[in-house]
Each structure stands twice: as C-alpha cells, then as structure tokens.
Amino acid sequence: MLWNLLGTQPEIALFASLAIGFFIGSFKFGPIQLGGVCGTLIVALILGQSGARISPDLKNIAFALFIFALGFTGGPQFFANIGRGWRYGALSLVEVIVVVALVLGIAAMLKLDPGTAAGLLAGGATESAVIGTASEAVARLGLPAAETARLQANIVTAYSVSYLFGLVTIVLFASQFAPLILRVNLRDEAERVWRKLGGDGALAEGQTPAIMPLAARELKVTAAAGSSIGELEKRFGHNISVQRVVRDRSVIKGQPSVTLKAGDRIVIAGRREALVEAMPWIGEEVFNGGGSDYFVEKVDVMLTNRALHGLTLAQARARANPADGRGVFVAAVTRLDSTVPALPGTQVQRGDVLTLVGSKEDVTRGAAKLGYIIRATQKTDFVFLGLGVLVGIGIGRLSAHIGGIDLSLGTGGGCLLAGLVFGWIRSRYPVIGSLPSAAAQILKDFGLCTFIAAVGLSAGADALRLIREFGIALPVAGIVITLVPALASLVVGRVLLKLDVPMLLGAIAGQQCSTPAISALVGVTGNATPVIGYTITYAISNVLLPLLGPLVVGLVSKLG
C-alpha cells in the first residue's frame, strides 16, 4: 500500500528521502560520516524502485538555486585567492589535471559511457555539484530520451559507489597516511605552526584555543607611574589598551595623553600574552572583576579594505594609525563558514569576516576602517537573487565547438559563474544583494538534496544493472581517482612549494571539497591550522570541479 503510494505521490518519496537520508548521514563511524547528500541519494535509489518520479522542472530549479548560492557565498574568497593564494591554489590545478587524466584513462580502459565516467569524476573528487552539470551535458548530447535517462542514471549510481570509497580514502589519507609518508608527528607540527603564527601554545581539541586569546584586567599602578598611556601601549606593540583610569574616586577615560600616577587603578585589555608581559611593568592586579565588563561590544565585519588584503593581523595593526586601531581586537576570523585562527601571523583576505570586540566606540571606529558591519537580518534581496539566476541561465545557454566537441556551461555552470560575480559585487557594495548566511545555507542544502533525491528516484533499476555490470571496478576506480591527486599534491606541496604540513594537508582536503576530511584533520592536530590551507583550495575547487562535468561528458562521448 505505502509502496504504491510513493509512485502516485512522489512528494512523499522526496521528503522521505531527505528525512531518512539525513538521519543515515548523521551517523559517524570513527572519522567517517556520509553526510546528508550521500544519505539522501542512497535512500532515493532504494525508493526509486517504486516508480516514484520528480518533475524535471523542480529538479532543474532546485539545482539552479543550489549552484547560484554556492557561487554567491564563495565569490569573495574565490577572487581573493586567484592571485595571492597561488601556492595553495596550485594544488587545485593539480587536482583538476590529474583527475581528468585519470577519468579519461579509466573510461578508455573499462569502456565506460559518458554518464558513468562523469559519475566517477563526481564521486572520486567527492564533489556532488558535478552530478548536476554532467546531467545537463548528457541531456545536450541529442540522444533518444531512454538513452539520456540511462546515462543520467549511470552518473548517480557511479557517484554513489565511488563517493563512499573516495570519502573514506581522503579522510584516512589526510589524517593518518600522509603524516606517516612525510614522517612527521602531525600534532607536534601543528603546535609548531601555531606558535610561528603567534599563538601561545594553549591548544584545544577543536578550532579554538583552550584559553581565550583576549582578556581584561584591573591593575593598581606602581611601576608605570609617570608614564603616559600612549607610551605604555606603544611599548607593547599596541596589543594592549588602557580603557579607564580610576583616580581618587574619579573615573578618567583612557586616552594616550593621560599620565599615570602611583595608586591609580586602571582597566587594561588586549591579547592575553601581551597582558602577561605588560602586567609586571605596570603594577599589581586587583582581584575584584573590574575588567570583566570590557569586551561588551562584538560585531562581525566584512573585510573590504584593499590595503589589508594578504597582510597578517600583526602587520595590519602595525600599519594602522594607532588612534584608529586603539582598543580594537580581532577575536575570530571566519572564511567560507570555517573558523581560521585569529593569531598575529594569520593572513587576512578581502571577503573574510572579522569578529571585533572591545568598547562600542572603539569597535565602531575600527569597523569603519576595515570594511562594513554585517547587520543581523533575515531578509533576502529577491531582486538580486532572481536577477542573478536569470543571468546565470543566460550564460549557460552560450556554447562553443572545440575540437568537434560541443561545450556548454549549461544552467549549472552559468549559475555558478553568475553566483561568483554577484557574490563579489555584494562584498563590494553591501547595501544591495542581501542573502543572509542561513538563507544561503538553506538554498545550498535543500537545493542540492532535492536535486539529488530527484535524480536518485529516477535512476530506478538502472542502478542495480550498472553495479552488476562493473562490480568491484567502480569502488577501485573511486579510490584511485581520490588517492592519486592527493599523492601528487602532497609531493608538489611539500617538495616544490615548501608548505607547512598542517596547511598542506588542509589544502588537500579542500581540493577534494571534503568537510569530513578537514574535520578529522582538526581533531588530529588539536588546532585549526589546517583550515588556513583548506579554505583556499576549497573555494577554487568548488568552482573548477563542477565545470569539469560537461568537459568529461564531451570528451568521453567524442572518444567513444
């Protein structure tokens, strides 16, 4: 009864695939977690045996929204990393070149059809968006409807099999095997890099230090009597700030020109290591919690100042006018929804979100010099969103004939490029194009999983046929397509580019667009240093890999 109902009401099959798929994908087996996309696909392949089918129009709309939101959120980082992040970005090029060569070689060896080859690309590179761009490319081959449906089903099936083995491979390679190959203790190496970036060595099992890097204390002035506040702050590199002075029951605002006197009680704030160094030069700590109310203002600022792109936080502070930077501290750096260590040696890029803390006056002044404050909003600019998708569809209709192969971006590639440009425009002109991060995440998650469920349901019996035909060849191919580019990047990154190991392994996880791999790495290293490399290659590979779908389909169909 229920099985027959799925065929007559496909919306039940769709939401059942989403609910059960995300439930299955939430389970972890050691460092391995399938995730909602793969879970949804597996359930949809099973429920598809009932004959349930989703309208192609819904599938296309869902994918267009997903791919536009993907480009929109990654646009600022993509353009920021094209030039100055070339050392890490080179690894994404290694990934692209090696993966394409491997897929074409395996397709020739096993005599794969374009759909199966594209599915191996998507699964081996662990990039789900390739399914959409490749499916569109198959539809443009001009084949009979039944053959088109078969090839599109092969994409999904080949992806589901190769993805499972590719995911396990990249997680274990990045977190376990690569450190053994390089003969390094990954945790010790991560701590060394953390210290090199300016961390104090207090590490935690996650993405934040065990001790907060910012602190405030109330001190009684003794040794610093006779010094001005400006002189004191300059002595410690402006990493501390005197916020207020209590003298004879009068409260004096902390200004650089104020001269301290013996017996003054001052509230001093800044980076913890700078405070520890400065306190003996100032006086004695007063244990009454007088400094606990200092970091009362906290705002997120999108960095748009061109002059600061590529500088470390320490360099940015050194170049800033002391009057502008006084009392402004960076508590966190967010890049592509990942938290990057906010250490003195951390490089910042245009498009980063800096979390500023301090007094309201100081934070407002600092934000104006860095970029613009991201206001909390739940409103989406649907004019901007709709226009962006329309532009993407228009770009996708353009085509070119190269070497006898008809290449076209399709709706997926067009919306991806449009999303990149519109996201970049939004970062430059923040008064337009509001797409809150939560709304963008919904578009990405729901759009992709709805598309995946739709193509999984339509795969039907073709999925079982393909698995019986190739057997163990698909899992082995998935492992090879994942492992070989990772090994190539390991050699290039370590021998030629001389990258630090934690960042190199993070970049390898990013070139595979693998969130489970970076999560496993952070757990092994004990800090967030791998995320620095991950965000750069993730931003670039998220654009390049989906564009390979039409290329592989065209090449394999041409080569027969």
CATH-derived topology of the domain at 214-285: Alpha-Beta Plaits
User: Which CATH C-level class of the domain at 214-285 is it?
Assistant: Alpha Beta
Average pLDDT confidence is 82
Percentage beta strand: 5-15%
Tell me the CATH architecture of the domain at 214-285: 2-Layer Sandwich
Cα gyration radius (Å): 27 Å
N- and C-termini, Cα separation: 44 Å
- The total strand number stands at 14
Could you describe the largest sheet, including whether it forms a barrel?
5 strands, antiparallel
Q: Tell me the number of helical segments per DSSP (H or I, 4 or more residues long).
A: 22
Q: What percent of residues adopt helix (DSSP H or I)?
A: 55-70%
Can you characterise this structure?
The chain is an alpha+beta fold. Among the domains are: 1-53, no CATH class; 214-285, Alpha-Beta Plaits (2-Layer Sandwich). It is built from 22 helices and 14 strands. The protein has helices spanning 2-8, 10-25, 35-47, 56-83, 86-110, 114-124, 129-139, 145-182, 186-196, 229-235, 272-282, 313-319, 322-325, 360-370, 382-396, 410-428, 437-459, 462-470, 473-496, 501-511, 515-525, 529-559, and strands at residues 28-29, 32-33, 214-221, 240-247, 250-253, 265-271, 283-285, 297-303, 329-335, 338-340, 353-358, 371-373, 399-402, 405-408. Strand 4 and strand 5 (250-253) form a beta hairpin. It starts with a helix and ends with a helix. Mean pLDDT is 82; it is low at 201-211.
